[in-house]
Amino acid sequence: MKCVGTGLILAALVLDACTPFAMRSNVATEREPSPNHDERRPNLVIIHHTGNGIVTDALRTLTNPVRAVSSHYLIGRDGTVYQLVDELSRAWHAGDSRWGSLTDINSSSLGIELDNNGAEPFPDVQISALLELLADIQRRYQIPARNFLGHADIAPRRKTDPSRYFPWQRLAEHGFGMWCDPLPASPAPPTFDIALALRALGYDVSDLNAAMRAFVLHFVQDDVPFLLNERARTMLWCLSTNPPGQAPEPAQ
What we know:
Blueprint: H1 11-18, E1 44-49, H2 55-62, E2 73-75, E3 81-83, E4 109-114, H3 124-141, E5 148-150, H4 151-154, H5 168-173, H6 194-201, H7 208-219, H8 230-241
Parallel strand pairs: 1-4, 1-5, 2-4
Antiparallel strand pairs: 2-3
Helix pairs in contact: 6-8
């Protein structure tokens, strides 16, 4: 194929077809570029906290080739947003993780780190910057509300970020994540299957205790138990039987 443009009508097609692509094969090939493709799009957003005391430490870690970890964005305590990796590239932030049937989370997600040591509240200016970034991402990629998650949600045996101090309810009120408010007045029925409900949401229940702890960390934010208390059971029941962000009407 000769890559020569012949007119404005075919310009976009020709330019796309003539765009060089990386050689991936280890065998001899003939290049015949096709215009019939597009870029891969993220369908999950994973939120982390850095565990660092200051943002410069986090930047050093996330840009150090020896550490081999990264994220697409880092938001400082003062609300500064740093972009570290192109959104259409695969950042290394999720590690060994799973959500539903997805096991290569890095390939289907955007990672956002928040400068926070994990034992402190998140400043309002930082959360405001996050909400602005999430709104922009959601507009461009049409990511469903239920696909805004924490690192602990996708790696419950290994991770606890973005910590019990993260304002998940505030995010859900802006359309980023699931929540039930108000909770149903009636508790979950005695026959309610906790493992089935967690699995339906997306949690990996191969370690059920870890999945329950991750759920409580996200949706209840009490001391993390090995068993769900009544509030946690009711929240899980509500989320598993109603659309994201909506709760059934309280019983009269």
